[in-house]
């Protein structure tokens, strides 16, 4: 259908719906006229026009309804809320006052208002409706009857219920006359528009499950199903990327003929009464527009207990379609007690599907360079969803245009943007280190150097080994690359992590495990879950300091604390084994770690305390080429029995002393620096170390 014909069709439908509403209002107006005549003592009003005859008005209403391709707004509203003919006419009476100036005058006349006062509009009352409208019944105005339960009518103030002025709720009036239905009290809702395009196989399978969960209810209910209908099954949609969850839900709803609106869970009203009011208004809108609600729970934290309670209460209140979107279904199940619940959990997209998304997004931007050698590396390192990949590719648009860049330059820019997009979430949870160190700065025995280079190789070659050679198809467990760096302070553990991150062009985040571990049962796992979830998309290198805070020898369970400590360790190791980046643990006390836990790590690198030869090499490399120095005896410096980190501290401290004195660095500056460093270590400088120094 062309745009012009679609517009003409919409205009014709709007005109037909308007005629239907006018015909319905005419019947109510005629009932008012007849009531006013009876109030004047007349049996029947003097009809001025043949068209005002009730039977002719009924025929006009029937004709207007038959001219419509589907139910008119008034008919949909009556069906959705189960209105009786009297309740419908009472609603129309209140709408008529807003739409037709003659209604207010008739109401004033019917309620006995003097003619001299009729210039002021009069609102209808329930007493007037009982007297003037056919098939009247008292229970239409009770709190649980549709008109008040769904707030179709708003009661004014007044001591007598039947004499209280009545008004139609403004959004309902707009709905009746065909204007866009918008309730300002639901302003935080966001309409979700389905994205065109073919679903990936894993997405399609999830979409089929969601449709199947609701299709039986959809088939047994009209699009405007009202009170008394069976509750729709609650859906928990667990998706690694929240935007992909929105897209998936929108597509499933579209195929079911439902609209979808989204709300962030933390925006739910705070008090129970406010929540119930909000739920009633949302359900009213959902029933009128055929809509489902997606509640975004991805940002919930362990501290959001009140929000979890609100989610559970909302799930029990609503009978209309509800989807709870989160990363892990288990985080919500405890808060829910619905009559029916369906959990749909998506694993991260397979590598082949991620590569398909990368090619699709780059093709849409007319990026024609051959990136086949790079896309698999991007997909393996950064497990992004569809929306995230599109955002990354869109950032290629600034000058210079992608068409002017080589394949390596485009890949490098994509890699950089992928790193950046995960930073906001991780920066709130861990300390980001800026890795600039290179291999020249690290002095270790050959075996340790070889192990560190092999860690880099394992990260770089994951796509080849796991995907092309098929090891990844044997199961996700053990595919994560985990390492333990063990050694005393200052032996280079953090420096090695920085060098690896710099070599791999990845962000490095340091997490102090002693700060993550909580005395409250279950809180440690929640803290770790937040860190790993945030890190997944950015492919960051995670450096867990103080591993002995969690990895003590607890395999022998003596009490509940030991049991839960083992659970915490097991959770961390499980996440490390499946994490698609590199996770490194550091410890000063390897002997304090349980061997059973250590066997689950892929790499264990021991950082020895440097001997004299290693210390000499560290001193040779520690001074920058631009540093002015004079008569430094590196062999004497190597006699200082300290680790590499302490050597750097001494060199830096001495450089500041030399700069302040306006001199080149010489041994006297380093002697003073060594004394300060040894004082921090709480050990004395011995004659064997500094004998013969100037």
From TrEMBL:
Q: Which positions fall inside the AAA+ ATPase domain?
A: 479-611
Question: Which top-level group of life is the source organism from?
Answer: Bacteria
Q: Which GO terms describe its molecular function?
A: ATP binding; ATP hydrolysis activity
Q: Give one Pfam family, short name only.
A: WHD
Looking up InterPro entries in the UniProt record yields: AAA+_ATPase (IPR003593), ATPase_AAA_core (IPR003959), P-loop_NTPase (IPR027417), WHD (IPR054472)
- Could you identify this protein by its name? AAA+ ATPase domain-containing protein
Q: Which organism is it from?
A: Thermogemmatispora tikiterensis
Q: What is the lineage of its organism?
A: Bacteria, Bacillati, Chloroflexota, Ktedonobacteria, Thermogemmatisporales
């Amino acid at each position: 259908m062309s745009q012009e014909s679609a517009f003409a069709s919409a205009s014709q439908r709007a005109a037909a719906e308007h005629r239907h509403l006018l015909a319905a209002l005419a019947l109510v107006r005629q009932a008012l006229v007849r009531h006013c005549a009876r109030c004047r003592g007349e049996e029947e009003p003097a009809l001025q026009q043949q068209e005002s005859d009730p039977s002719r008005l009924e025929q006009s209403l029937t004709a207007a309804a038959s001219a419509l391709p589907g139910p008119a707004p008034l008919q949909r509203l009556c069906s959705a809320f189960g209105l009786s003919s009297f309740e419908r006419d009472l609603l129309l009476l209140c709408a008529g006052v807003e739409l037709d100036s003659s209604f207010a005058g008739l109401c004033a006349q019917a309620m006995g208002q003097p003619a001299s006062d009729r210039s002021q509009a009069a609102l209808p009352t329930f007493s007037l409706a009982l007297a003037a409208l056919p098939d009247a019944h008292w229970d239409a105005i009770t709190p649980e009857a549709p008109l008040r339960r769904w707030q179709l009518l708003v009661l004014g103030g007044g001591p007598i219920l039947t004499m209280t002025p009545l008004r139609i709720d403004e959004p309902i009036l707009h709905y009746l006359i065909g204007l866009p239905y918008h309730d300002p009290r639901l302003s935080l809702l966001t309409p979700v528009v389905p994205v065109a395009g073919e679903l990936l196989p894993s997405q399609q399978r999830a979409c089929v499950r969601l449709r199947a969960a609701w299709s039986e209810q959809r088939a047994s209910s009209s699009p405007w199903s009202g009170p008394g209908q069976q509750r729709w099954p609650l859906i928990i949609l667990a998706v690694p990327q929240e935007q992909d969850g929105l897209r998936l839900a929108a597509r499933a709803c579209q195929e079911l003929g439902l609209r979808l609106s989204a709300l962030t869970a933390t925006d739910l009203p705070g008090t129970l009464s406010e929540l119930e009011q909000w739920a009633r208004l949302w359900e009213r809108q959902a029933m009128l527009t055929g809509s489902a609600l997606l509640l975004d729970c991805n940002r919930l934290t362990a501290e959001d207990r009140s929000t979890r309670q609100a989610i559970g209460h909302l799930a029990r209140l609503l009978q209309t379609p509800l989807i709870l979107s989160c990363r892990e279904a288990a985080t919500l199940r405890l808060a829910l007690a619905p009559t029916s619940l369906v959990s749909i959990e998506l694993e991260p997209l397979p590598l082949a599907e991620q590569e398909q998304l990368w090619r699709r997004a780059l093709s849409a931007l007319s990026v024609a360079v051959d990136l086949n050698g790079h896309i698999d590396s991007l997909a393996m390192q950064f497990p992004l969803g569809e929306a995230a990949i599109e955002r990354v590719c869109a950032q290629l648009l600034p000058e210079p245009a992608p068409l002017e860049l080589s394949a390596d330059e485009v890949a490098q820019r994509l890699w950089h943007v992928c790193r950046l997009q995960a930073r906001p979430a991780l920066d709130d949870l861990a300390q980001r280190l800026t890795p600039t160190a290179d291999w020249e700065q690290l002095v270790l025995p050959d075996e340790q150097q070889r192990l560190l280079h092999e860690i880099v190789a394992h990260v770089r070659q994951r796509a080849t080994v796991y995907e092309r050679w098929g090891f990844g198809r044997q199961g996700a467990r053990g595919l994560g690359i985990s390492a333990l760096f063990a050694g005393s302070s200052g032996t280079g553990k953090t420096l090695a992590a920085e060098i690896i991150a710099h070599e791999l062009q990845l962000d490095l985040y340091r997490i102090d495990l002693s700060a993550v571990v909580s005395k409250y049962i279950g809180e440690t796992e929640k803290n770790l879950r937040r860190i790993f979830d945030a890190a997944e998309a950015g492919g960051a290198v995670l450096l867990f300091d103080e591993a002995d805070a969690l990895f003590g020898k607890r395999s022998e369970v003596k009490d509940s604390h030991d049991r839960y400590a083992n659970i915490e360790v097991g959770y961390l190791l499980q996440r490390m084994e499946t994490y698609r980046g590199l996770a490194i643990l550091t410890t000063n006390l390897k002997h304090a770690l349980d061997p059973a836990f250590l066997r689950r790590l892929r790499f264990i690198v021991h950082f020895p305390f440097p001997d004299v030869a290693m210390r000499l090499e560290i001193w040779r490399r520690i001074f920058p080429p631009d540093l002015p120095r004079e008569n430094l005896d590196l062999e004497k410096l190597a006699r200082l029995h300290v680790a590499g980190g302490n050597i750097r501290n001494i060199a830096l401290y001495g450089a500041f002393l030399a700069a302040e004195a306006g001199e080149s660095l010489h041994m006297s500056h380093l002697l003073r620096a060594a004394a300060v460093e040894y004082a921090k270590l709480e050990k004395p400088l011995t004659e064997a170390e500094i004998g013969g120094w100037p």
